[in-house]
Write a structure and sequence with these properties.
The chain is mainly alpha-helical and 44 residues long. The chain has helices spanning 2-7, 18-38.
């Protein structure tokens, strides 16, 4: 996982603990879900 994140330019040391990382991912997912829903974006 760390190697995969490194290839994306993510520095794991900046992510904090696994719980903090999970919170970041959850918040980001909720943010994008709201944007997609509000703008009525769909897959074609």
């Amino acid at each position: 996982m760390l190697e995969s994140l490194g290839k994306l330019g993510v520095e794991p040391a900046l992510l904090g603990s696994p719980a903090q990382f999970a919170a970041i991912v959850s918040a980001d997912s909720q943010r994008w879900a709201r944007i997609i829903r509000d703008r009525k974006i769909t897959l074609k």
